[in-house]
Design goal:
The protein is mainly alpha-helical.
Length: 165
């Protein structure tokens, strides 16, 4: 599952409009117009053929979107004296975007662990608190577990069931 696919599924699950998507990107520090959002959200018919009508969403752009989504949902956080104006990017080249998705959507929607377990249950899979904790840990922690596409898809499916019904 690539970043564009994740954005398409997240947009569907939370019923985010194209104009709101452009605003979220802007809040995250990336200038994107509504026509560009449409190109980002266009599914490519064939992975091998490059589609001129599609804009690929790279990992740093995806991270900026998630940061903007947190600001969009929760508001801008006031900086404390002595803190840098813009926080460091949480994205690293080796970071798994699925783990990033779980963490940042959890923050943006103010989901508790029980809420997240409920979302997975709605999607039809059982996840233990320990497994979820391992997915939400910082990379490099001894109990860190990389989030696979199956978990990410089911999380987005659970969001769609919860927010669209």
């Amino acid at each position: 599952m690539d970043n564009n696919d994740i954005l398409i599924r997240l947009r569907y699950a939370l019923e985010i409009k194209n104009k709101e998507m452009a605003e979220i990107f802007k809040l995250g520090g990336v200038e994107v117009t509504v026509p560009e959002v449409i190109k980002i959200l266009t599914k490519s018919d064939d992975d091998e053929m490059e589609n001129d009508e599609q804009i690929k969403c790279n990992n740093s752009m995806f991270d900026s979107f998630l940061n903007g989504f947190i600001i969009f949902k929760r508001g801008k956080q006031e900086t404390k004296p002595g803190e840098p104006e813009t926080p460091e990017s949480t994205y690293k080249k080796s970071a798994n975007v699925n783990n990033l998705l779980l963490k940042k959507v959890k923050i943006a929607l103010a989901l508790t662990t029980e809420d997240m377990l409920d979302l997975f249950e709605k999607a039809g899979i059982t996840v233990t608190k320990g497994e979820l904790g391992a997915l939400l840990r910082k990379e490099g922690h001894k109990n860190y577990k990389e989030c696979g596409d199956k978990f990410a898809r089911n999380f987005l499916k659970g969001l769609a069931i919860k927010y669209r019904s």
